[in-house]
Amino acid sequence: MIRSFLTTILLAAFSAGPLRAEIPASAEAPKAADAAPVALADADGPPEHQGSRRVVPQGDDGVILLHARDASVHGGTLRYEPIEAKNTIGYWFKLEDWVSWEFTVAKAGEYSVEVLQGCGKGDGGGNVEVSAGGKVLPFVVEDTGGFQNFKARVIGTVTLAEGKQTLAIKARTRPGVAVVDIRQVTLRPAEAKP
Known about the structure:
Layout: H1 2-15, E1 64-67, E2 72-74, E3 79-81, E4 88-90, E5 98-105, E6 109-119, E7 127-132, E8 135-140, E9 146-160, E10 163-171, E11 181-189
Antiparallel strand pairs: 1-11, 2-5, 3-4, 5-10, 6-9, 6-11, 7-8, 7-10
């Protein structure tokens, strides 16, 4: 019943002809100065695989929260999965694919790096590297029983200078079907407690 109702509505909408909107000739185009500037990080993956790519600001509490939705995806199959139950960087089948985030640091210092990762049953054991602040932090992906069963893991610390920074995650090995799903990375001032 609902299906026939929706079909009727869609048929009525499409049979009415093309939708038209008229803009008065006197209407002014928006000025570039009126638009809020949005800095976007570079990415070479397909547009439909991208997160927002915005440059993430440091929070008032000093924490820098790098959500999957803000990532820049590099490669062919890796992508941001926006479905609420997922909200992750997934489809990590190719080792040449990688992900990055750009962010600003307001206060230089040492930061702990926490990765919120998920991995399918039997697919754990991949070697992955997180790089930021000139340091590479390797970690082994933990099998969490499902790609959307996320586990927070502190993998080390990095020293970050004030200003714009980049954090990248690259896979080095893939023993299973896919490497890992990454929901977020949290950079927390080393003196702060979670």
